[in-house]
Amino acid sequence: MNIYQDYIQEIEERKGQGLHPKPIDGAELLSEIIEQIKDLNNEYREDSLNFFIYNVVPGTTSAAGTKAKFLKEIILGQSEVKEITPAFAFELLSHMKGGPSIEVLLDLALGDHTSIAKDAGDVLKTQVYLYEADTDRLKEAFKNGNPIAIEIIKSYAQAEFFTSLPEVVEEIKVVTYIAGEGDISTDLLSPGNQAHSRSDRELHGKCMITPEAQAEIKALQAKHPDASVMLIAEKGTMGVGSSRMSGVNNVALWTGKQASPYVPFINIAPIVAGTNGISPIFLTTVDVTGGIGLDLKNWVKKLDTDGNIIRNENNEPILEEAYSVATGTVLTINTKTKKLYNGDKELIDISKAFTPQKMEFIKAGGSYAIVFGKKLQTLAAKILDIEAPLVFAPSKEISIEGQGLTAVEKIFNRNAVGIAPGKVLHAGSDVRVEVNIVGSQDTTGLMTAQELESMAATIISPIVDGAYQSGCHTASVWDKKAQANIPKLMKFMNDFGLITARDPKGVYHAMTDVIHKVLNDITIDEWAIIIGGDSHTRMSKGVAFGADSGTVALALATGEASMPIPESVKVTFIGEMKDYMDFRDVVHSTQSQMLKKFGGENVFQGRIIEVHLGTLTADQAFTFTDWTAEMKAKASICISEDDTLIESLEIAKGRIQIMINKGMDNEKQVLQGLINKADKRITEIKSAEKPALTPDSNAKYYAEVVVDLDQIIEPMIADPDVNNVDVSKRYTHDTIRPLSFYGGEKKVDLGFIGSCMVHKGDMKILAQMLKNIEQQHGKVEFKAPLVVAPPTYNIVDELKAEGDWEVLQKYSGFEFDDNAPKGAARTEYENMLYLERPGCNLCMGNQEKAAKGDTVMATSTRLFQGRVVEDTEGKKGESLLSSTPVVVLSTILGRTPTLAEYTAAVDGISLTRFAPSHKLLVM
């Protein structure tokens, strides 16, 4: 059986799943298809033509290279296909987005055939995905007086690739669809347990929300063919929890429009909305696809006659409906007045969704085209030695005389590209910035690879200091899906220039370290900007932004990112932490005290949390910054004292050296370069040449939160509140309860210690608690299973060296074995300790899960419905989030402990201690 017959068989198998043929990305299959097209009598010729024209993945895939080469033969008359004229061949090339297609177009444009050269030049004028090798060819031809090259360069300087596009329509009719009440996690749009299928867009689309919801969306489209379906988070925020490009892709697949008639299942322009708007990182992903995200504000706080907020018995504001967006409501978006209408009635101002920059994204079909277009125009103007004409909306620049800078404002100003020398920008300014560190994770990495191929990128930008591809989200189970996807991903990223968790050549041991932990270690400058393909890309050094797979691809390819400088909320601490409390309780209490102070309004949402932790080193401080994703912050910055920062950098150097010793560095010695940069930064701090980053004393903040440690008198738990009568209050991270709320009676079915929210100290606390309980009771008996997944291998190695791993082994009934990894997910748990492979494990929910309907006590970050644990018919699964000591004790007791039981269990144990920094307080 030949490769084409294999493809036909696959097509038949996909028909059984209700799927179309999978888009072709391989040269071998497409070469066979081309041979069948050339054979006029071939029985598969008609199907082959359709596959060639309509079903080939564009960009830099090997299939795209083969397609471009054959189209070139047709244009030059070397091959004849009656169904593909030279004009049609040029049209097909124009939809291939870069890479081999650009190379072919340049060959033709700079060739000797005058009419062909002109046609090729006309197509090139519409293209923006050009890289150095392409622009160098144009530049050389321009210098040699090539008339077509001169035309193209002049066209680029005028940005005709953008100005020639149709304007955004004035009125967009939408029909509403309530996707859910309360915050909508991207898990609803693209479930984590379906991560393996994300690169197969049509297949993955079948997992969005529910089949019933998909049918309802199709029914709305049939009833309102002239309207776009707008997905809404009623009484909540759309797209919380993750930066998932696959979530936006799924929404676009069901409700958007096809980007190109010749490329299947790549849709753009989705329209999404939420009562409380769109999660910041999700909104960035919407921009990538040229979509629209609306802040509806259709539920408002009820006021009395004096203008005071009316509250219910739980002291929560009572909401009343300002206007209805019930499913099936037809509304109109006016992009000129920037208002939302129901008929002639104006509902709300939506101008934030239609800034000049966002209008450009919509016009161009996505933000990538604008980023590449601006670079191309700048380059062309430089070649012509002219000032680039003002075509694109000027960047918004806010500079306030006499006002100091917050930490994030300082970092953005330091890394800004294209602003006038000496210009100082404040929050709200639009800025292009250079990116220092980039991270790609394994369940979104395949999509990042696809994005890199589609934008014709082949090598990492030299601007990037370091980039890492993780294997943590698929660490738990080395099943057939992982075996098929992960090696392919690692090879692509390794070839691209990233440090990879797995070595395609098999020289070093495969690592499954949690991506955020690795990025935290390889960030060696608190002035750095980090972009990572996960919402928990929150570092304790620098400022890090969780991003969709496309934005990660853009950062890898260009070394840049574009965004407004966010506002900041300053968080400081007073009081004294109790000896029996863990720092995780401080983290939860910060969120709780903030919500109480601002009457339930989350002032962190969409902003930077500038947290003055001062004396906590990188590992411990990461516990706070990591949780800020759950606080709905856009990012966070940890302000450290000089000595603490030096200590953190020394720890980072040691861990990077371990990576080097394992053989993970590449030919460019990226890891060694990071150590060298860390040494330089340490020298700057010690010499006082450049002390640790701090904000200016006269910086302006959106709000300031002072956390009183004296108020934290018992462990705090983030509760999904699964039975709240108000559906919108369920599965948010805003319900923070004290341990005593549960009265020592709530049954716990499983405990989980692991993922990114724990560090080495947590593992040592676990070991010490087990020893204490054995001393107090003679033996340790678990009344619920306890799953433990250390974040990194180096933590395991250090625990082994210090004797703690031996303690954990003593009580465990299972220990991971890299030589024989699990091939299937565990479905049942015994009442014992499980020592799992380093990685995300239960927190990710795509491989391992708790039993349906379980109550889980976990150190992780995820309490979304169905993520860690699914519901049963009679009981909702729930994931309560707490500190390591609470999790340990809950599994030994099989229930939540009382405060007395808790304090006895942690007596004499060194928990994660924290004291406010006096230096920072008097800054």
UniProtKB/TrEMBL annotation:
Origin superkingdom: Bacteria
A Pfam family matched in the record: Aconitase
Domain Aconitase B HEAT-like: 6-162
GO molecular function: 2-methylisocitrate dehydratase activity; 4 iron, 4 sulfur cluster binding; aconitate hydratase activity; metal ion binding
EC number: 4.2.1.3, 4.2.1.99
InterPro entries reported for this sequence: Acnase/IPM_dHydase_lsu_aba_1/3, Acoase/IPM_deHydtase_lsu_aba, Aconitase/3IPM_dehydase_swvl, Aconitase/IPM_isomerase, Aconitase_4Fe-4S_dom, Aconitase_B_HEAT-like_dom, Aconitase_B_HEAT-like_dom_sf, Aconitase_B_swivel
SUPFAM superfamilies: Aconitase B, N-terminal domain, Aconitase iron-sulfur domain, LeuD/IlvD-like
Signal peptide extent: none
GO biological process entries: propionate catabolic process, 2-methylcitrate cycle; tricarboxylic acid cycle
Enzyme class: lyase
Domain Aconitase/3-isopropylmalate dehydratase large subunit alpha/beta/alpha: residue ranges: 410-894
Keyword Plastid: no
Domain Aconitase B swivel: 178-405
UniProt GO cellular component terms: cytosol
Entry keywords, A to Z: Iron, Iron-sulfur, Lyase, Metal-binding
PANTHER family attached to this UniProt entry: ACONITATE HYDRATASE B
The name this protein goes by in its record: Bifunctional aconitate hydratase 2/2-methylisocitrate dehydratase
Organism: Flavobacterium pectinovorum
Organismal lineage: Bacteria, Pseudomonadati, Bacteroidota, Flavobacteriia, Flavobacteriales
